[in-house]
Amino acid sequence: MLTDHTRSRxxxxxxGQTYLNTAAESIPPLCVGEAIQAYWMDKLRGMDGRxxxxxxxxxxxxxxxxxxxxxxxxxxxxxxxxxxxNLLASALRLxxxxxxxxxxxxxxxxxxxxxxxxxxxxxxxxxxKSVRGVLDLADLEPMLGERTRLVQLSLIxxxxxxxxxxxxxxxxxxxxxxxxxxxxxxxxxxxxxxxDCDGADVxxxxxxxxxxxxxxxxxIGLPRRNAQRLTTRAGGWxxxxxxxDPDRFERAVSKTGAASFxxxxxxxxxxxxxxxxxxxxxxxxxxSIAAHADPLVTRLHEGLRDLGISPMCPPQPExxxxxxxxxxxxxxxxxxxxxxxxxxxxxxxxxxxxxxxGYNTAEDVETFLATVSKV
Length: 375
Known about the structure:
375 residues, alpha/beta, Aspartate Aminotransferase, domain 1, Aspartate Aminotransferase, domain 2, 2 domains, 3-stranded antiparallel sheet, 11 helices
């Protein structure tokens, strides 16, 4: 993806460390810092700075839409994926008798909103359970039916890197649960792999991981065919058409679809940053990122197997991802040894997770494997 020169120029923070934790936090390129500074300069203009603020929002909407394959009016922003899913819950208004399907590889933000609220009014949540780190469509099939109102999926699991085979999964849901909304979290995919989520009803992504942005942002993609069906019922002002009209205390009229998910003042600084980050990724090219990073992931799988370590999800050459995870009884010792060498990975409850982005190198992978081997 990068030459030694452009890597050191665009990502100087990578010098002196082996950073393999993008699935948790990215290292943004310098252009993102410059965008944050541009926000600051606009902010110093006071009210006059809003001209720059709202121009940045629209620029970010345009590049975000292009990156997820939608039109600009089908994309909006809120503060994080948790907010997006709670707003989706307000739009769906699920109740007793409705069924929701989630997987045990989902991040809590997409899996837990359906568990909240009065118990007597809550929908039934069915969990699609992985087997040896993989979600099998044969296990999903009996969970689907006429009462299924939502199927919540992660295109790539934060937990172990498993990637859903999108098309057969999509076709199965459409055939057996025709009333279901299909929502897909692409947080661990956008900016790293070529998306293949055609037909999804909702796409949601955080902005501080593979997209190389910062905290405080979330992309919501909602095709206009679902605009009426998936309009939030939240209060606020930015998403209302009559927020300052004479009847504002009598009724609240929302914009429809994606626009209804931006309920308050945009977090401008995160969108300045995201706009710069996505344009950087587009210039490099997601195809180029995948072509560079996928072989490094393959090498990680091979190297771990040579050490007698079995990744939690087997290799998926037909559905590549950037994440490799494994469990080990000496994971705490491994993590301490890695940290001592300034090798950054995620360690949680006996699980080590490695994430490989376009700014990683073969040397990063070999340094990681050599350190684990010593442990």
